[in-house]
Design a protein that fits this description.
Blueprint (H helix, E strand, L loop, with lengths): L8 H7 L10 E2 L5 E2 L9 H12 L1 E4 L25 E3 L10 E7 L2 E5 L10 H9 L3 H8 E5 L26 E7 L2 H11 L7 E4 L5 E2 L22 E3 H11 L5 E4 L3
Amino acid sequence: MVNKEDYSLIEAMLRRRSCRFGKGMKLGSPLDYQSQYLPQPLTLEQEALLGFAASGVTGYALAELPYAPAAVGSTGSGGNIMVNFIGRTVASADAIHGVTVFITNDQGTWLLKRPQDYLRTEIPSLIDMSQNRRFVELYERSRIKIAQVRVDVPRRLPYLMPFNGWAANVPGTTYFLAVNELSALYINVLLAMFSEDVGFFMVDERNGYRPAGVEKFAKSKGGHLEDDLTKESFMYIGAAETYSRNSYRPGSRVLFTKI
């Protein structure tokens, strides 16, 4: 047993191992093994802490950005990209909070609400719960039951790899599924790109680099989008899509159980 006070970061990295086999599980051939214990689900407190780590409300975002329009020749502007001013444990481009976490276990299936799913008047009490470590209360306040049973994932490709089927979402486990809804982020990115401060001229590289529906907003037509391509003021559609996707990494499924 290692004393946690002496457990350094290097020690943690050296000892880090992935363990998939929990109580009540069975591993198939050629390593046939059946657990001698009954499945032991997470407690409500443990589930609440993991739910908080995945999507908990923590306070107000610092949002340290310049909000005034940029003066001629300066670069200080663009704070209006902020959509919300609430902070979460999970990263969020522009505080959009597009991640929704679903939780399923032996007792049913729940959705954890995002900050924008609450009334604004509710936010201070949520922050108070998190700051005062009332995680179970916060968890029960945050989740909405959407099914009375464990909802399974499709047990086929591309949803579940064959080598994960034996341990994924089985009795006694708690399955966390993060889903990213990126529509608001795409819209926000486009609004920023086409704003007076940025003024990108969008071209379609898959269609001969023609203007992507924005020609009438070009400076040469009396608009504000800089269409002089020698000034590197243009944006490809593919680059804009990549930029938006990279702002949020794809959601991942996480399985927890007692070992």
